[in-house]
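Q: How do we represent a protein-ligand complex in a form that can be generated token by token?
A: Start from the inputs.
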Amino acid sequence: MNPRHRLATHLTTADSVTVLTGAGVSAASGIPTFRGAGGLWRNFSATDLATPTAFLRDPHTVWEWYAWRRGQVADCEPNAAHRVLARWTQTRPLWRVITQNVDDLHVKAGTRDLVRLHGSIFELRCWNRCSASPGAWRDERVPFPEMPPRCPHCGALARPGVVWFGEALDPGDIAAADALTACDVFIAAGTSALVYPAAGLLHRARTHGAFTAEFNTESTEATEIVDVAIRGPVEVTLAELDALL
Ligand code: OAD
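Then emit the structure tokens for the protein with 2'-O-acetyl adenosine-5-diphosphoribose bound:
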């Protein structure tokens, strides 16, 4: 049986299915990935742009980069992969999506009960964590009327509501993602499977006995350990799989 049919067979009888997504799922929507050809971390330094130290040293540069990315993302629409996953979560009670993406395209596609491990590029937080500001607030203005944007409560600098390198993920999100590794089928889609703790979820799912699959255009660290690896653009391969269900 070919890999796609094998996976389809498991999905047909599965109660709980968890899909972990990464930047590759949004590539067809026009959003650059991080590590592949043309990836953001090929042309920009994560250390200079995506760490608390970088923000402390030069908030203007960090915000210019995030404002540019917000502009890029604001014009993008969900693709077939987002749409298939959204429909799965809407029609099957225990089929869920965990994403590392901060572009909100899963939300735009209508995904139910999405776990966003790395936050959202359209949320902001008070750098001073002032008592008046909520944990994070939504701000979809592109461009910002004032740069860098400020906390509306205390006037301190605002920061992007994303998780930077060296920062802990939200404990509630980690717990939610971890709980979803106890599933019948676990799929890693469009992720290089290199960044922890997200990358560890696949290992956890295997420990729980899940049937595992990868959707990617290339081989990754995950390829060796999954039950089936499906090569090709996920916006095509996932739609093809969906047609078999
Ligand atoms: P990466 O850029 O590391 O990996 C994207 C993966 O998607 C690669 O393995 C590509 O081969 C694959 N890919 C590209 N286009 C595809 C397509 N159309 N169909 C299927 N696969 C495709 O992105 P992530 O794994 O999401 O974190 O990166 C994880 C985290 O590292 C990000 O959330 C971000 C980054 O630094 C933070 O900023 C904290």
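The mean pLDDT is 95. Residues 33 and 39 are 5 Å apart (CA to CA).
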